[in-house]
Amino acid sequence: MKYRTNAERGYIGCSRLGEPNYESRRSFDFEGYQSGVYLNWGPVVTINDDVTQPGFITSHHEHKNLDILSYVVRGTVKHHDNLGNDLVAHAGQVQHMSCGTGIWHTEANPGSDANRYLQIWIVSNRWNQPWTPKYTLVDRDPEFGLLPIELHNTRLAVRSGILQGTYTPTGSSYLLQLEGTSVCAGYTLAEGDSLEITGPCDVDSEGGHCLLFTMT
């Protein structure tokens, strides 16, 4: 097991363009946070836990050859892309950009309050197989369970939601506590804490919001 507290995550206090209405806590090395130690967990190469203020907007930019999830925890996130999608995601929804040969997009906070959402980048295990880009907005089940998404990494399963009781991962897993608490292998995880699970272990929680990646 490898336990990491929220305080040990990387912290960025402004956007790449210097805008002060953005802050990010990063699980893995990304742009302004370079630990040289926390590079990835398997195919998960980025988990940026972002909070933006009303009026924030990113510049128009492109992504390729990744599955990118925008997991909205609080507030709203506006998405616009070159595929013709122009909509707003709300808490409890997940944006899935299956980037393939390329998607250009912007994101913004169109609401009147701060939002919180996770940017999760996942690499494919099907090398040299370009695919047609696609955007999907999905509603996740509030209860802990599989996200209704199809990734290009066929070995990775993503579960999330409010865990009431016990869940036992069946393989190597990475647990990130989003809200509330959970207990695993003697560790109590609070918001922002993570645990790399390398052996048999029950995850117990009474209403904590959990995000779990498992390699099958």
- Helical region count? 0
The main β sheet shows up as: 7 strands, antiparallel
The run of helices and strands is EEEEEEEEEEEEEEEEEEE
CATH H-level name... which superfamily?
Jelly Rolls
Q: Just give the CATH class.
A: Mainly Beta
CATH topology: Jelly Rolls
Question: What is the CA–CA distance across the termini?
Answer: 18 Å
Identify the strand order in the major beta sheet.
2-3-4-11-6-9-12
The global form is globular
Amount of helix = under 10%
Rg, Å, rounded: 17 Å
Give the integer mean of the pLDDT values: 95
Question: How would you describe what is shown here?
Answer:
The chain is mostly beta strands and 216 residues long. It has a single domain, classed as Jelly Rolls (Sandwich), CATH 2.60.120.10. It is globular. Helix content is 0%, strand content 52%. A 7-stranded antiparallel beta sheet has the order 2-3-4-11-6-9-12, with no helix packed on it. It has strands spanning 2-4, 10-12, 22-26, 44-52, 61-63, 67-74, 76-81, 86-90, 93-98, 103-108, 115-122, 134-139, 145-146, 156-167, 173-179, 182-184, 187-189, 194-197, 203-215. A hairpin with a 4-residue loop joins strand 7 and strand 8. It is built from no helices and 19 strands.
